[in-house]
UniProtKB/TrEMBL annotation:
Transmembrane regions: 182-199
Keywords: Membrane, Transmembrane, Transmembrane helix
The species this protein was found in: Methanosarcina mazei (Methanosarcina frisia)
Name under which the protein is recorded: Sarcinarray family MAST domain-containing protein
Length: 201
């Protein structure tokens, strides 16, 4: 029964897969898989283990100042888990205002779950560009497949990304920044002592 489902969904996927890049009069999108650009109509078709992380990146360029909303999308639910990125949930939009002739980089680190082990599942990118202002007109919107993932039955046992393995608190200072005030204080005292000595002369 599961094999029949794979075949049926595979046929559906063939109709849903778009080009791995997009362009219009309002701008363009360049797509990267694991830091490698996907030229033209090429779509990444990786063979992944369950839980194996990969990166998808979208260099989004606009020709005018506008409001942009982007998200990662999937067919069904719980097929992928976002490890890191502008959003941490599938189907959740990230929204921003972009300046004229500017480029914004949207990058996610994602891993497949065991839900479709032994099968295939596309990971899609959805975008919408609106005019600025309340009720701004939709200038362009679209969706395309960034990666068509073939998921094996094996579990990934490699290195866990740092963002998932060792989360760093936003309030925690780095070693460099923590030591900086001490050097600043010593420097300030030295300057004061030098000025005092000059005045005494």
């Amino acid at each position: 029964m599961k094999n029949v489902s794979f075949v049926t969904l595979g046929i559906i996927f063939l109709f849903l897969i778009g080009t791995a890049s997009a362009s219009s009069q309002y701008g363009s999108i360049d797509v990267y898989y694991n830091d490698k650009i996907l030229p033209g109509k090429e779509i990444a078709k990786p063979v992944l283990k369950i839980g194996e992380p990969f990166k998808v990146r979208f260099d989004f360029t606009v020709n005018q100042k506008c409001y942009v909303a982007v998200k990662l999308s999937e067919l069904g639910k719980d097929n992928f888990v976002i490890i890191d990125g502008p959003t941490l949930k599938m189907e959740e939009y990230y929204r921003t205002i972009m300046e004229e002739n500017s480029t914004e980089v949207f990058e996610w680190t994602v891993k497949p779950t065991e839900k479709w082990a032994g099968g295939s599942m596309p990971l899609d990118f959805v975008y919408q560009v609106n005019e600025l202002g309340a009720g701004g007109e939709i200038l362009v919107k679209g969706e395309f497949t960034a990666a068509y993932c073939i998921i094996s039955n094996e579990h990934y046992e490699g290195k866990i990304p740092i963002s998932e393995e060792q989360p760093v608190s936003e309030t925690e200072s780095s070693p460099t920044s923590a030591s900086t005030p001490a050097f600043t204080l010593v420097g300030a005292l030295s300057v004061i002592a030098l000025v005092f000595a000059l005045f005494r002369r």
